[in-house]
Design goal:
It contains six helices and eleven strands. It is α+β, with helices and mostly antiparallel strands and 242 residues long.
């Protein structure tokens, strides 16, 4: 049950993923206590600070909670989708208790576009389109454009309800470090009325995001359109470090 010390993925992230997999597989039920830091450190032959980093991450993501003097416990799934965190849409769906599913609408394809601010030339992007459904009802539409140079080969991937965040981390050894996002409201046109199964003119929430991967600025552009009349989207904020 060891972790891979030779992997570019940090040990704390490997452990966090291992704990999440066990939760999703039902090995740790809601409201039950996970093994202590000492137990996890011994089990995986790592230091307690690494274990603490992993559990801190899962606490921030809302998957675990600490109870003073008692330990760390599995959280109940949320009734909302925390859509706007860096963890990604797939992670947000796993946190929710809505029975939501993710569906890819097309194969990845190449587009030449001018997406970056102050760009003087058009760049090569890999476009992916997908949507979220709750009980077969589409509630969210998402178009992602990945930097075609940084994520070369992504267009050849076969996607089937898998997490793009995990794919990017495991294949390209990259994780988003920060993001910029803007919010707007607009009326559904023919395209979105068909995609989200609603009347033309229905108000929709649009989120435009630019994700940065360290020094690779604006390497991923995401356009998220939400049908807020069907259920709630949330955002969890944390105080800035001082």
């Amino acid at each position: 049950m060891s972790l891979n010390s030779q992997s570019p993925v940090p040990l704390y992230r490997q452990l966090a993923d291992r704990i999440l997999s066990e939760i999703d597989a039902g090995q740790h039920a809601v409201a039950t206590k996970i093994p202590s830091e000492n137990e996890l450190a011994d089990r995986y032959s790592i230091g307690r600070p690494t274990v603490r980093q992993a559990t801190d991450l899962l606490v921030r993501q809302g998957r675990l909670e600490r109870r003073r003097g008692s330990g760390t416990f599995v959280c109940s799934p949320s009734k909302t989708i925390d859509l706007f965190s860096l963890a990604g849409t797939s992670a947000a769906l796993k946190k929710s208790d809505l029975g939501a599913t993710l569906e890819y609408l097309s194969k990845p394809c190449i587009e030449i576009k001018d997406l970056r601010a102050h760009a003087t030339t058009e760049d090569r992007w890999i476009r992916i389109e997908r949507q979220v459904k709750v009980k077969s009802d589409p509630v969210l539409h998402e178009i992602l454009w990945f930097d075609g140079e940084l994520f070369a080969g992504l267009e050849a991937q076969t996607l089937s309800n898998q997490s793009l965040s995990t794919l990017v981390r495991d294949t390209y050894f990259l994780e988003p470090t920060s993001a910029d996002q803007t919010f707007s409201v607009f009326e559904a046109d023919d395209f979105y009325s068909k995609r989200l199964n609603m009347n033309v003119g229905t108000a929709l929430l649009k989120v435009d995001r630019q994700l940065h991967f360290g020094d690779h600025r604006e390497a991923l552009h995401v356009e998220i359109v939400c049908s807020t009349d069907k259920f709630a989207f949330s955002q969890t904020l944390f105080p800035a470090a001082t």
